[in-house]
C-alpha cells in the first residue's frame, strides 16, 4: 500500500453501514470521508514544500517526529497523527461478533485475569480520557500489554509502543448516535473489534 506523499483517503474495507446497529452509517461516513480527509489534506499541504519529508512513510514520520523541521513539526504531529490514528481505528473493526483468541488472548488472561476484567479496565480508562483523544492497547518488545491513552492526535509510535487496538473517543466518533453517553459508545464498539487483526499484529513480531 502506498504510504507516502501525497497521502490519499483509501476506501474502507467495508461499507459505511457495515457496523450497524452498533455504529451508525452517518457517523461512519462523516468520520471517514470528512474528518479523516481533512487530516490528509492538511498533511499534504504541510509537506508540499518539504520534498525530503515527502519520501518518508507515515509511521516513520511519527516515530521520528522530533527530527522534523521546527516550522512544520506541530502540524505534522497533529495531521499525520490524525491520518494514522483514524486509519488504525477503521481497520480495527469488523461486524462479526469475534472473540479474542491465540497468544493475545492468553496474554490478556495473564495480565488481567479474564477478558471481562480486561474490558472493565479498558472501559474505565476510555471514560477517563479527558476531552479529545484515543485509548490504545499496545505491547512492548517482549509482548507485555499496556492500556495507553493519548491526547488529541498523538500516537503510541513516539513511545516505541506497538499498537494493537484503538478506540477513538473524540466526540465526533459517537455523538450523532450516542450523544454525550460515551459509555454506551464504548460498549457498542466492543462488539465490532477485529480481534483477528489484533492477534496478527501481536504475533507478527
Structural features, described:
The chain is mostly helical. 49% of the residues lie in helices and 10% in strands. It has a 3-stranded antiparallel beta sheet, with helices on both faces. The longest helix has 23 residues, at 25-47. The radius of gyration is 17 Å and the shape is globular. It starts with 24 loop residues before the first helix and ends with a helix. The mean pLDDT is 96.
Identify the notable features of this structure and list them briefly.
205 residues; 9 helices; three-stranded antiparallel β-sheet
- Helix share of residues? 40-55%
How many β-strand runs? Answer: 3
Structural class: mainly alpha
Report the oligomer: single chain
- The secondary-structure element order is HHHHHHEEEHHH
Which ranges are low-confidence, i.e. pLDDT below 50, for 5 or more consecutive residues? none
Beta fraction: 5-15%
- Side by side, the strands of the main sheet go 2-1-3
Distance between the termini: 20 Å
Shape: globular
| Distinct helical segment count | 9
Arithmetic mean pLDDT: 96
* Sheet having the most strands: 3 strands, antiparallel
Q: State Rg.
A: 17 Å
Amino acid at each position: 500500500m502506498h504510504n507516502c506523499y501525497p497521502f490519499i483517503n483509501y476506501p474502507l474495507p467495508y461499507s459505511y453501514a457495515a457496523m450497524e446497529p452498533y455504529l451508525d452509517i452517518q457517523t461512519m461516513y462523516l468520520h471517514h470521508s470528512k474528518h479523516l480527509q481533512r487530516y490528509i489534506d492538511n498533511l499534504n499541504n504541510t509537506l508540499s514544500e518539504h520534498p525530503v519529508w515527502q519520501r518518508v512513510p507515515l509511521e516513520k514520520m511519527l516515530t521520528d517526529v522530533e527530527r522534523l523541521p521546527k516550522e512544520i513539526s506541530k502540524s505534522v504531529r497533529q495531521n499525520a497523527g490524525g491520518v494514522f490514528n483514524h486509519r488504525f481505528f477503521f481497520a480495527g473493526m469488523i461486524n462479526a461478533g469475534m472473540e479474542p483468541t491465540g497468544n493475545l488472548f492468553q496474554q490478556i488472561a495473564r495480565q488481567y485475569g479474564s477478558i471481562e476484567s480486561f474490558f472493565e479496565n479498558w472501559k474505565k480508562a476510555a471514560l477517563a480520557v479527558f476531552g479529545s483523544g484515543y485509548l490504545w492497547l499496545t505491547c512492548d518488545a517482549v509482548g507485555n500489554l499496556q492500556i495507553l491513552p493519548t491526547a488529541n492526535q498523538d500516537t503510541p509510535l513516539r513511545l516505541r509502543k506497538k499498537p494493537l487496538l484503538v478506540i477513538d473517543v473524540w466526540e465526533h466518533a459517537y455523538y450523532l448516535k450516542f450523544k454525550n453517553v460515551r459509555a454506551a459508545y464504548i460498549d457498542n464498539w466492543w462488539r465490532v473489534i477485529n480481534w483477528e487483526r489484533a492477534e496478527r499484529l501481536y504475533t507478527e513480531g
